[in-house]
């Protein structure tokens, strides 16, 4: 005798309900803070009053790290600005960005305009880490180390995005 899977499920469901076993409403279950950290995919990181926020880059195909710097300097869209996002990466003079495996280096012609542990540096580090992991699929964004080498003054880093996300 051959029994259909659907029939087995109906019979099993009837047996469980008949035994008093069923799905009971539970209401809202608090699960804590949303997941944080870097996720796979190209993301720009913008500053906000509550820290850095990732914005997926959906409509552009960018694999050049220097182009990523330009996108970051352009800032968030109008809708993202209404949500309180901004960019602190503005007025960047000459620069060159290179990436090899889990290492990214930003070489600036002039001095660096921000502190090592502020949101501007976090924007730079997290965005470049995100894009480097997309460029080189074997590299996890969490493993990317970014070094900023200004034309004047000491180098910053190597820095990882997790240092700026509080996680």
Set down the secondary structure blueprint.
Elements (H helix, E strand, L loop, with lengths): L4 H14 L24 E4 L6 E4 L8 H10 L3 H5 L12 E6 L2 E6 L10 H17 L9 E5 L6 E4 L2 H4 L2
Parallel strand pairs: 4-5
Antiparallel strand pairs: 1-2, 3-4, 5-6
Helix pairs in contact: 2-4
How many extended strands? 6
Shape: globular
Helical content, roughly? Answer: 25-40%
Nearest-integer average pLDDT = 78
Evaluate the radius of gyration: 23 Å
Give a quick rundown of the structure.
The chain is an alpha+beta fold. The protein contains 5 helices and 6 strands; from the N terminus they run αββααββαββα. The protein has helices at residues 5-18, 65-74, 78-82, 119-135, 162-165, and strands at residues 43-46, 53-56, 95-100, 103-108, 145-149, 156-159.
Descriptors:
single chain; 167 residues; alpha+beta; two-stranded antiparallel ribbon; 5 helices; 30% helix
């Amino acid at each position: 005798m051959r029994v259909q899977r659907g029939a087995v499920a109906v019979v099993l469901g009837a047996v469980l309900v008949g035994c008093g076993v069923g799905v009971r409403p539970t209401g809202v279950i608090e699960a804590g803070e949303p997941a944080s950290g870097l996720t796979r995919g190209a993301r720009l990181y913008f500053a906000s009053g509550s820290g850095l926020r990732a914005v997926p880059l959906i409509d552009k195909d960018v694999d050049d790290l220097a182009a990523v710097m330009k996108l970051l300097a352009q800032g968030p869209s109008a809708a993202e600005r209404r949500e309180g996002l901004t960019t602190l990466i503005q007025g960047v003079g000459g620069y060159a960005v290179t990436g090899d495996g889990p290492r990214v280096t930003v070489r600036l012609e002039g001095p660096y305009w921000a502190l090592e542990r502020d949101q501007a540096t976090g924007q730079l580090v997290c965005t470049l880490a995100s894009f480097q992991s997309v460029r080189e699929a074997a590299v996890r964004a969490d493993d990317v180390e970014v070094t900023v080498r200004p034309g004047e003054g000491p180098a910053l880093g190597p820095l990882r995005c997790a240092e700026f996300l509080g996680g």
